[in-house]
Predict the 3D structure of the following.
Amino acid sequence: MFGSLQIIYLKWIPQERRDNLRSTQFKGLPKMLVNIVQELPCAVNLTRLDGSGIVYQGSYYSCHIKGRKTEYHILDSHESESINSRKIVSEVTSLDFNDVKPTYSGMARQLSVWISNRESNNKINADIIPVWHYQKCSPAQMPNMKVCDMTAAYFQMACRAKSLFCEMVDGRVIWHAVDSRTEQRWEIIKLKIKPYKKLRLALIGVNSTSLNTNSRSSTKKYYRGKLCRMSGQPPTQFRNLAALTVRASYELTQIQSIECDSIYSNADCITTEINRKLKYWDDAGIEYSIRAQGDLDLKACGVWKCGERETLNYKNFGGFASHSPKNIETRYIEQLLG
């Protein structure tokens, strides 16, 4: 790996994988190395050990860049989805598996470049996404309720769009023509990555960077052991489409929440009475599923129990916390759905 760092890295890797790791990573001395670990190494220590390099530390990975070599550590809880996603990206783009980035954002950028390298006007106002998610929460205990989730909300909106290329001007969506090659590749992407949630989200996420100042990146950047400003990478040519899908999803949840007088709505989730239909979503042909149903105990955004299903933090959350929604003008959803 990187000289003296070899043993230090290996101690994070389960014993049964070490022999295989040694035999595969050093074959041909690849520029990009990928380790599967049970615990992420400390980002500060990685650069302090030899006093050089940059480390990007995410929630499930760390990436150490030193000169022309790059080494990744991926949590074993993400091993299966990361590997399967890399296989799909390799299959679709014809890239060698070892050349496919192991992070979802890296894969999403590679897919974006493969779909089209066309230049596009990405100059849009950041206020198109005033806040990232529509959220409303009025804590209560109510019988016979259901929690409904849009299916792959952002990706569903992107698939419903009239074109991959668009502009938003004075509240209007201007759609641009797409060549047949790009359109065919997009159809392949829609089919192939649908089962992979994190990759789907990343395809929108990497093109929405810096659009909303209220959202904070979970990724940190360290240079020579010191935390520094996260500059990030510029979005691809699909930034406008990504921004439109996020905004349209917000409007979609807001409209449906108001229509059914929901006591709890969060991002792509709506809570209402079991026998009540989600008329706007139904009329618009929105795909969604019933995530839970039964007696509802709603404590706060992301903290609830409905029937037999409960959120991870439900039992440890004390008290209640209400949240008032930020309503925005619904000007884009109808143009996207057409």
Q: What stands out?
A: Residues 3-102 form one domain. The chain is about 35% helix and 25% strand. Residues 1-30 have pLDDT under 50 and may be disordered. The longest strand covers residues 288-300.
